[in-house]
Design a protein that fits this description.
Length: about 1150
């Protein structure tokens, strides 16, 4: 809990905080105060939620809509003493509930194993003594000691900070550790105004506060506990993930909303409760659709029962009730829940092997409908590690590190000299040929016949670079080593120092190597957040390779560029050294800006030969080991005497590199109609640069309209100031939001939802938890916080963004397969209902309707015959086009127009075929003899009916089984499922491709014979008997049914009926396809060359270029655009002709700036 303060503690002085908490910074709390506070405040623990109780999971499964309908049918069966049918329905319910319970309970157990359970401790001052206590015993007012490596136990107002830096990446998303200070003169960000309220400063800028769960990376300090448990900043985030926000209009406050409000509020709350209980208002789109389907079928069953009763003039003996139950059973797909659940189990098993743990079974199918992904940057899109990307050496040398796949491995990637690339400005011929001065025959020769790209020059170890590496290696506290046991590079220290140390390893001039050559440290001036630099002093060894005189001392310094420049009198090393001038200083600052615009943190590195020869440490100077001693004026004077008259050696641009697979994964999302947004706590320029690098933003923002370009990148403060109406009025929502607070991410999720988007949120930090819980699909990283994992529905154990794409692909595959087996199950139900309703006209001598097919035959077909082929359809592989289609419409779900029409067509065809078979057998052979009481028992008079039932049962079984093969593709012919297969008759190969489905159908076809011919089983259970000549009718009708399906598929293909819609194309696409490629443009004057070149242009290259050009999606997919007046999606932003020509959208494929940079 939090103590009471007149205003936020970061705005208060230390005495004011002492007074508010009743503590003393020199003695701490007394034992009496601690006891009182422990009784007043709960333990210092986060309530992140534990495992879901087994009975909660069980009840959740029982309340499934389809299960409730089956319960009703079972109760009715037992009510009319039909114990066999009631027992079968009870078995169906048990099977469905068991499968669903087993999967969801197993997922929760898996999460239990992922939760990191620990009991950290804290060092506190009580009764004037320093003691170590468990974290949960910390109370507001405690004085807490912090040192490097500690986890901060609670929110602290720091009153002592010695070079203290805390890693707050899990809270704010900022990868770089935050330097802490003790003063309360906090400025409003971007201004010179002192903050007066907590609303003016975000948590990331309250640098005199150390937050709970963050980690001390450097230095030491002391602070006063101002908040514990769920009242800490991380606790507030955890609480917001489970906080239930009441929907608008549910208030019961009549004073505020009027006297009628309690009635309206009560009605709406009741509606919400019933909707939630019945599954009609909460859940994924598929869950809601299936719930609605279940109740729709239930009411259809009641309607059919009324029809049955009406035909029998509402004289309702048990026989009529049984017929009504049979009709109701026929319309309900009893195996749908089991098939759906088992298909999801198989999918989750596949995903688990791909490092994706599905906590919520329904989340996987929801992935298929995702239209937007809101992703954190640090550790998700990027590696969460720092690397030296660029180095500038005076006067103009620029080095670049390329191809590094592991920031900790100095031997991954190479260092290239970019100096010539920077100085050489290439002509832009497309820009020169404007529409006013276009020449059809004046294309420069170097445009038509460009010279081959020269390979980048490898950076040599020049004297200037040698000095830079020496200073960067020795003025550094990080360690980089190769672990033989783990076969991996291990690092310790602050991320920026690690990056510099790794860079020195590339030339084998690291700190360990230099000290082995004899360099000996004699003094260290640690990094000070107030002056933003650190320095070390080393004695020069004999035989050094940098030209220093042995026995003398050298000062090495690094730090913020502006701070180092103010101390420099010269620039460069060796022959390149020159005095510092204002012009040179401006040039250096321009170079710093260039690096910063690339998303890099820039550090300056300098040195100074000690003028007195050998440095002799004074008594007040810091010790070489870097011990934290109290500052003093003498010590400050000693430091000032050392850090002056420096020589600048160069600048280092350090950044957090994107994961290698991020850009191709984002491209896959773009091609699939999914828009990726970056929501990060980083600086806007850093976020913008990384977004361009991974492809979230176009390198050339000119392809965007002015309105979109102005809001495509926003700061959280600007976004938060906007009202919901202003956000909704934006043409497009921002693709990048920097300096995000948890509330910003939640508002973004809600803004997307108002645009009818179906979004996924990815993240690993505590700050991601609210949006993870409120997004339609929350995806947490396995290395992330427990709070985030508890709020998410899916956990990625490998933290890779491409695993998200794999999960989406699996979700889409499963969604397509769900459509297939739903069509398979429901079309058979339609056929059965048509058969039974028509059967009402077949009345025996007693006037009762005769079953064309018995109730247990229906249950056998629905539960046994249909189930296994449906399971097989659920195991179908993903089609090649699965990630080239837009997300499915969540309003329609699996029940698209094509599925509904196909269901009616195939069901009608099936019903007609089976009905004709019954008529042919009974009326064609036996003259319409329907016997007496043939629904209950076998007799000689019932032979015609029993033989007809057997024929109908066999035929219906075969039709359902063969339709499973037909539904492998709902548009292509079963006899040529793969249009690219060169085989003349690939039927067997295509069918055998899914072995489970192949054998399920084959065994099902054979299983008809024992059920028809086994004594007792046929007459007493299934109410049919052995047949002979009827097989000819069965086979003939089966062939007719297959012909009918093929004919309908041909009509759909021939006339383009019910085709899937395509991803809306636009001038650019996010991400980058596969490997980095360079696409050359062609001018209008190169038509002759193009014609001759086209004859030899390979098919593969042609396809590749066309794919790249066509994959350029709009800024936002149509499914996420604001709705116009008639409810349809408004089109994406349209570029003017001039912009399109500049963007290369006039029939040619022009390389973007990003592609040119990457191909160089």
């Amino acid at each position: 809990m939090a103590a009471e303060f007149p205003k936020h503690p970061f705005l208060l002085s230390i005495p004011e905080v002492e007074k508010a908490t009743g503590t003393n910074v020199d003695k701490g709390l007394t034992s009496g105060q601690v006891a009182e506070l422990q009784s007043k405040y709960p333990p210092n623990e986060l309530d992140v939620g534990g495992s879901v109780a087994w009975y909660t999971i069980f009840i959740r499964q029982l309340c499934n809509a389809m299960i409730l309908v089956l319960f009703f049918a079972m109760a009715l069966s037992f009510g009319v003493n039909d114990y066999i049918e009631g027992g079968v329905l009870a078995a169906v319910i048990v099977l469905n509930v068991t499968i669903g319970f087993w999967q969801e309970y197993g997922a929760e157990k898996k999460m239990d194993a992922l939760r990191a359970l620990s009991s950290p401790s804290a060092t506190v001052l009580r009764d004037g003594k320093t003691i170590v206590i468990p974290n949960f015993e910390v109370v507001p007012g405690d004085i807490v000691y912090l040192k490097m490596g500690d986890t901060v136990p609670a929110d602290l107002r720091m009153f002592e900070a010695m070079n203290l830096q805390c890693d707050e990446s899990s809270l704010t998303g900022e990868a770089i550790p935050v330097e802490k200070r003790v003063e309360n003169d906090i400025l409003v960000p971007g201004t010179d105004t002192l903050a007066t309220t907590d609303e003016e400063v975000g948590i990331g800028d309250r640098i005199n506060i150390a937050y709970a769960t963050t980690i001390v990376r450097k230095g030491r300090g002391r602070g006063i506990v101002i908040a514990t448990g769920m009242k800490t900043e991380v606790g507030k985030i955890a609480a917001s993930t489970s906080k239930k926000n009441r929907k608008p209009g549910r208030s019961m406050n009549w004073k505020k909303y009027g006297k009628a409000q309690p009635v309206k509020g009560a009605f709406r709350r009741t509606y919400d409760f019933l909707g939630k209980f019945l599954g009609l208002t909460e859940g994924t789109p598929l869950q809601i659709k299936l719930a609605k389907l279940a109740y729709l079928l239930f009411f259809c069953a009641l309607l059919l029962a009324v029809i049955v009763f009406g035909v029998n003039k509402f004289v309702v003996p048990n026989e009529v009730v049984i017929y009504a139950i049979s009709t109701g059973i026929a319309i309900i797909p009893e195996s749908l829940v089991a098939v759906l659940t088992i298909s999801m189990v198989v999918a989750t098993t596949v995903m688990r092997k791909a490092n994706v743990v599905v906590r919520d079974l329904s989340a996987l199918e929801a992935l298929g409908g995702v239209t937007n992904i809101c992703s954190d940057k640090t550790g998700t899109l990027t590696q969460g590690a720092m690397i030296v990307k660029n180095v500038w050496l005076p006067p103009s040398a620029v080095l670049s590190v390329r191809g590094s796949s592991d920031p900790s491995d100095p031997y991954k990637g190479t260092v290239h000299d970019k100096t010539e690339e920077v100085e050489e400005k290439k002509r832009d011929f497309d820009q020169e040929r404007t529409t006013q001065a276009i020449k059809f025959d004046g294309v420069p020769d170097e445009k038509l016949n460009p010279k081959p790209e020269r390979p980048a020059k490898m950076a040599e170890l020049t004297p200037a670079l040698r000095m830079f590496l020496l200073s960067a290696a020795l003025c550094n506290l990080a360690t980089v080593r190769y672990d033989e046991a783990e076969n991996a590079w291990k690092t310790t220290g602050e991320p920026t120092e690690i990056a510099l140390q790794v860079f020195t390893h590339r030339y084998d001039r690291n700190k360990k190597a230099m000290e082995a050559m004899g360099w000996k440290q004699v003094a260290e001036f640690p990094f000070d957040s107030s002056i933003k630099r650190m320095s070390v002093i080393y004695d020069v060894p004999e035989g050094n390779d940098v030209g220093f005189e042995a026995g003398k001392s050298v000062v090495f310094t690094k730090g913020a560029v502006e701070r180092i420049l103010d101390l420099c009198t010269h620039v460069g090393a060796g022959d390149n050294q020159e005095p510092m001038t204002q012009e040179l200083k401006d040039k250096i600052l321009d170079q710093m800006t260039k690096f910063a615009s690339l998303g890099q943190r820039v550090l300056a590195v300098a040195y100074r030969p000690w003028p007195a020869g050998k440095y002799v440490p004074e008594s007040s100077a810091p010790a070489p080991a870097g011990e934290d001693e109290e500052t003093s004026p003498a010590q400050d004077a000693a430091r000032a005497g050392v850090e002056k008259d420096l020589v600048l050696l160069g600048l280092a641009g350090i950044y957090d590199p994107p994961r290698r697979e991020t850009s191709p994964s984002i491209f896959d999302c773009s091609r699939a109609g999914i828009r990726v947004h970056m929501l990060t706590g980083d600086h806007p320029e850093t976020a913008k640069a990384i977004a361009k690098e991974v492809g979230i933003l176009p390198s050339n923002e000119g392809v965007l309209s002015a309105n979109v370009a102005s809001t495509v990148v926003m700061k959280a403060t600007d976004f938060d100031k906007m009202t919901d109406e202003e956000i909704d009025a934006l043409e497009e929502l921002p693709l990048v939001i920097a300096r995000c607070a948890p509330e910003t991410k939640t508002r973004m999720v809600e803004a997307l939802r108002r645009r009818d988007a179906f979004m996924a949120m990815t993240g690993d930090g505590v700050n991601d938890a609210p949006s993870l819980s409120r997004a339609d699909v929350g995806i947490a990283m396995g290395s992330g916080s427990d709070v985030a994992k508890s709020a998410a529905k899916i956990v990625l154990t490998d933290d890779k963004f491409n695993s998200i794409v794999a999960a989406i692909r699996e979700g889409r595959r499963m969604f397509a397969n769900i459509q297939k087996f739903v069509l398979h199950l429901l079309s058979s139900n339609v056929g059965e209902v048509i058969l039974l309703i028509a059967g009402l006209g077949f009345q025996d001598e007693s006037g009762f309707s005769v079953f064309p097919i018995s109730p247990l035959e229906i249950l056998w077909i629905n539960m046994v015959t249909s189930s296994f082929p449906a399971f097989g359809l659920g195991r179908e592989k993903a089609s090649a086009e699965v990630m080239r289609k837009p997300p499915h419409d969540k309003r329609r779900g699996v029940f698209t127009n094509q599925i509904l029409v196909d269901m009616l067509v195939y069901g009608l065809l099936m019903g007609i075929c089976t009905l004709m078979t019954f008529v042919i057998v009974v009326y064609g052979k036996y003259g319409g003899n329907l016997g007496h009481d043939c629904n209950r028992a076998y007799s000689e008079s019932c032979i015609p009916v029993f033989r007809a039932r057997a024929a109908v049962f066999a035929e219906l079984t075969w039709l359902i089984l063969l339709s499973a093969w037909e539904f492998k593709d709902i548009r292509r012919s079963m006899f040529r499922l793969n249009p690219d297969d060169p085989s003349r008759f690939p039927l067997f190969k295509d069918l055998y491709n899914n072995r489970f489905l192949f054998w399920a159908v084959l065994i099902g076809l054979v299983s008809v014979f024992p059920t028809v011919y086994i004594p007792y089983l046929n007459r007493d259970v299934f109410k049919h008997t052995s047949i002979s000549w009827e097989w000819g009718v069965v086979i003939g009708m089966t062939i007719l049914y297959v012909f009918g399906i093929e004919a309908w598929k041909w009509v759909k293909r021939r006339f383009g009926i019910l085709e899937d819609h395509k991803v809306v194309q636009g001038p650019w696409s996010q991400g980058e396809e596969g490997a980095k490629k360079f696409y050359k443009s062609q001018g209008m004057g190169a038509v002759k060359n193009w014609l001759s070149f086209g004859r030899t242009f390979s098919v593969g290259s042609r396809t590749e270029s066309r794919s790249k050009a066509q994959s350029a999606g709009p800024l936002t997919p149509a499914t996420t655009m604001p709705k116009n007046g008639n409810g349809t999606s408004t089109p994406g932003p349209v570029l003017p002709a001039s912009s399109q020509a500049a963007a290369g959208t006039t029939g040619t494929t022009t390389p973007t700036t990003q592609e040119k940079e990457r191909s160089s």
